[in-house]
Design goal:
Helix content: 40-55%
Number of helices: 10
CATH superfamily of the largest domain: NAD(P)-binding Rossmann-like Domain
Number of strands: 12
CATH topology of the largest domain: Rossmann fold
Strand content: 15-25%
Order of helices and strands: EHEHEEHEHHHEHEHEEEEHEH
Radius of gyration: 19 Å
Shape: globular
Distance between the termini: 51 Å
Oligomer: single chain
Structural class: alpha/beta
């Protein structure tokens, strides 16, 4: 069996084309979606992520309100900027790029963002709404994973799903989303305290690896015909690579692809979806504002 590769780049492209149409409909009402991405400091990875988000805004038609602040920016100044964006009716989404410098309290900063503009789905209020299945903005990576599963035609109703990783950002939200009646999967959440991980993976119809551990999931653990979603993006040293490293997922791709029915590659799988879902949340926020 050779797995069908779930092309995150193509799915992301499809969604962005859909978003362009929705942005056009908003423009007819005189509304332009606006996203404020705030970067504090010059962390190279963060700068790259922010650049990707800004390019996506340009592609979809979202107005950018981002700001790059110096590393030593006081916490109070960052909070004041967020409050300014909270008050600005042209800003429909606010995202603070992490990690933040050590002198800034992440939880305190996130709590300032109004839930209706929390298009990254990072506030405690949106997390609570998600748990209660109330309308809210979902965290972007988990939302992207669900879109990949749905658009690939993978059956979730009655499926046994295993999520490996319990982070607040990815693992826990995925557990919550998969058990919703709309997907109706039975979910096992595995983590560093889980014994016999191979046994859990071996009976799963859907495996989602988001532990941040390269090659953690062995190919021969995969149940024949399963769907494998690899969220892991790990830098592994490789002297033969131009940059001195290569990206590797949490799953042993080659051997897993021989047993799975569906599988995401790394890179090119889940990664492209994260920014796209941020764009989708921002457009949705603008639509909500236009309907008030």
């Amino acid at each position: 069996m050779a797995a069908q590769v779930i092309d995150g780049k193509q799915v992301s492209k499809d969604i962005r084309n859909e978003l362009k149409e929705r942005v056009g409909a908003l423009a007819a009402k005189g509304v332009v979606p606006g996203l404020a991405v705030i970067l504090v400091g010059e962390d190279p990875a963060s700068v790259s992520y922010v650049t990707g988000k800004e390019e996506a805004c340009d592609e979809v038609g979202i107005r950018k309100f981002g700001k790059h602040l110096p590393e030593k920016t006081p916490e109070s100044e960052l909070i004041a900027l967020i409050e300014e964006y909270n008050r600005n009716p042209e800003v429909h989404g606010i995202l603070v790029q992490f990690p933040l410098p050590k002198h800034i309290d992440k939880a305190k900063v996130v709590a300032v963002i109004r839930p209706e503009k929390d298009t990254d789905g990072s506030t405690a209020i949106n997390a609570g709404y998600m748990l209660l299945e109330e309308p809210c903005f979902l965290p972007c990576t988990p939302a992207g994973v669900i879109e990949l599963i749905k658009r690939s035609g993978v059956k979730t109703d009655g499926a046994q799903a295993v999520v490996i990783g319990r982070s607040n950002l990815t693992g826990k939200p995925l557990q919550n989303l998969l058990v919703r009646r709309s997907l109706n999967a039975t979910v096992t959440l595995c983590h560093t305290g889980t014994k016999n991980l191979a046994e859990h993976v071996g009976r799963a119809d859907i495996v989602i690896a988001c532990a941040g551990s390269p090659g953690l999931v062995k190919g021969d653990w995969i149940k024949p015909g399963a769907c494998v979603i690899d969220v892991g993006v790990n830098r592994v040293e490789d002297p033969t690579a131009k940059k001195g490293f290569r990206l590797k997922g949490d799953v042993e791709y080659a051997s897993a692809a021989e047993r799975a029915a569906f599988i995401t590659p790394v890179p090119g799988g889940v990664g492209p979806m994260t920014i796209t879902m941020l764009m989708a949340n921002t457009v949705e926020s603008a639509e909500r504002a236009a309907s008030r």
